[in-house]
Amino acid sequence: MKLSGLNALVTGGSQGFGRHIVEAFLAEGANVLFCARTVADVARAATELATQFPGGPRLKGVAADISDPASVSALFATAASFLGPLDVVVNNAGIYGPIGPTEEIPWAEWLQAVNINLSGTLLVSREAVRVMKPRGRGKIVVISGGGATSPMPRFAAYAATKAAVVRLTETLAEELREFHIDVNAVAPGALQTRLMAQVLAAGPEKAGKEFYAKNQIWLEHGAVDPRLGAALCVFLASRESDGITGKLISAQWDPWRDFPRLRDQLRNDIYTLRRIVPEDRGQKWS
After folding, report:
1. Is 158 labeled as catalytic in the residue annotation?
2. Residue 60 and residue 3: Cα distance in Å, rounded?
3. Residue 68, domain member (yes or no)
4. Active-site annotation holder among 96, 158, 212, 271
5. Is residue 16 part of a domain?
């Protein structure tokens, strides 16, 4: 098993894509502590997962608010007492935030999205670094998405925060390279999760006709299999990906299974955010 004996923490692990990550980690032998915002969601998921993996690796669910520093500190204290030193941390928890024309979105909802998607990712990652740095190794995985790589009209908070967490991922990767802590972001693709349900509930007027129609198509004809992104998270959590860091990787479109043999060729700006200059488009303006 690829993660046998490793200790992993997964935020937002009670449902949706986070749940698939937890299941994939347990199936590969990792001991897992997951968190979610509500006690009821944690209890339900923990019971279901224990049934799925009887006698399997250690598993525990905790209610936590990743946007609250005290809650995150308590989460890591629980991880230390239940699992021991963490080898892997997956920043999955996130929300779409307010949907609609940017000038109309409620300010409080914008701040909530920033606090959860960006500040929450940093709070969790900082605690992970403090655990991993003295050990000289570790894996941090950040779940990003399409909002990081292209504009998303009417989803300004989601797009802005997801782009920000990718640059945060790249920055942490450079800071932590000498400590052998790999930090990568994952784009799992369009998934049938509660986020899709939120888009459909918002309707075409708020979400935009084009994006609403895309979500209808994904709902009716199938979106990306979440197990694909979960398998990528397993790869990034394993020793197989050692030294691959600072990348935004698409589970659906990138040849990540070939990365071990391409390791040396990935020591550059491939799969990173960058500014496009005229020369990139065959133009010379100087």
Report:
1. yes
2. 17
3. yes
4. 158
5. yes
